[in-house]
Amino acid sequence: MTKNKNIPDLYLEKYIQGLLNSEDAVRISKLVEGDDELMRRINEIQLSNTEFLSNPKFTEGLINIERGVNAKLTYKKSNHVSNWRFAGAGLAVCILIFTFLPNAGLLFTGDVEIIYSEPGSEIRLKGILPELSVYRKQKDYVEKIADNQYVSNHDILQLRYRGAGYQYGVIFSIDGRGEITLHFPDDVNGNTRIQPEGNVALPYAYELDDAPYFERFFLLVSHESLDVDEILKKGKALARNKDSITDARLEIQDGVYQSSVVVSKEK
Amino acid sequence: MNNKIAVLYRDFGAMVLRRCTKLLKNEASAFDAMQDVFVQVLKNEKKLDLTNPSSLLYRIATNVCLNKIRDEKKYLFVNSDDEQYKMLVQIANAEDLETQTIFSGLLSYVFNRVPASSKTIAVLHYVDGLTLSQVAREVNLSVSGVRKRLKKLTAQLKEIEGK
Question: Which residues contact A60 (CB under 8 A, 6 or more apart)?
């Protein structure tokens, strides 16, 4: 992957989705700078992603996929609309609503991702959104931890973030006792500059202590420098509200994108 | 449709459509192929390892398109100056004897836990330009495994070209 024109489409797709390993992501990030052709290819893919979701064929495809499974691809056009078609259409509409409601704050908390559109901003798509991932070290491999997955005391976790173009970020967690731990930067006066492209692992692993119930990890990113102390105060305020501590959003200023991952503690 | 597949469709549908459009050179056929890809995923969800969805969907899309090119004979008569496209048509029409010997079901070898078809490997390397090690990573084979598969298929392609 040394010559720009030789970067396969699949790698650019993964790069945009934030699914490349950090080494390849950094390499492509460097190549993108000052390479108009590569930038054009990336822009083309991103534009195509947006067009796909806004095209009526998006919904049509969803319904046809459902139809293909239920009718074993033998369905022919007719005026008769069966129940499963309504079900498919309903689901499609739900997804469209989740995806396209403009300026609505928290739009969709699905199995996989939170879609959030900042007030006044363009709609952003999953894959080019900032994201925090939690990985657990196993004996001879590393496992990605899903939201709400159970983990144990003393598990070794590593945090990775995807800046998705944002230049500044803060990562911290709240545990089941309401204690706050700052993971990035190293201290409240540290530089909040992050790597805007690719998936980046924090340099230090993190051992879970014996705090009960859960640990919720937050990633906050912005195009401007962040006040760590202020963010941690917001975290402490959230931690005081036990009813919403695992799912409420931080009361944070406009222009700061936030996402979080909760790991549940085994009893 | 379950939420997981719907989210996959939302997040990767455009990528699959682009892949199919590139291989089939026809928007309508590509749209059909894209739907076929997700139908396969939906039907076989429990057998699939979805931890690396972009690679998996890319492979399934490649396989679906190769089958379409092979089955819809019109592609044989496309008069194209595009060498990569000629190569693609040749690969699609090659006999993938080794893979067929190992795996009886046509669908089975597009899934993550079994090796990809030799044809898919050939497309990734010869048409998409992935290096051998990149292909190996994508299809969960060793580099020597990829090389071996390509060697057999390439020999057959040369035979076809020589006829």
Answer: none
CB burial string B47-65: b at 16+ within 10 A, e below: ebeeebbbbbbbbbbbbbb
pTM summary value = 0.52
Helix (H, G, I), strand (E, B) or coil at B6: helix
Q: Which residues of B touch A (CB under 8 A)?
A: 1, 3-7, 9-15, 17-19, 22, 31, 34-36, 38-39, 42-43, 51-52, 54-55, 58, 124, 128-131, 134, 138
pLDDT band, residue A111 (cuts 50/70/90): very low
- ipTM, 2 dp: 0.80
Nearest CA in chain A to B9: A62
Show the 3-state SS of chain A: CCCHHHCCHHHHHHHHHCCCCHHHHHHHHHHHCCCHHHHHHHHHHHHHHHHHHHCHHHHHHHHHHHHHHHCCCCCCCCCCCCHHHHHHHHHHHHHHHHHHCCCCEEEEECCCCEEEECCCCCCCCCCCCCEEEEEEECCCCEEEECCCCEECCCCEEEEEEECCCCCEEEEEEEECCCCEEEEECCCCCCCCECCCCCEEECCCCEECCCCCCEEEEEEEEECCCCCHHHHHHHHHHHHCCCCCCCCCCCCCCCCEEEEEEEEEECC
Q: How far is CA A238 from CA A121, A137, A241, B159, in A?
A: 26, 29, 6, 69
Q: Which helix (H) or strand (E) holds B48?
A: none
Which residue in the set B11, B38, B128 is minimally distant from A8, CB to CB? Answer: B128
pLDDT in tens, A129-147: 788 989 888 776 778 888 8
Residue entry with tokens 């492209």: A197
pLDDT band at A128 (very low <50, low <70, confident <90, very high): low
Structure tokens belonging to residue A41? 């290819």
Strands A214-222 and A105-109, by their bridges, are unpaired
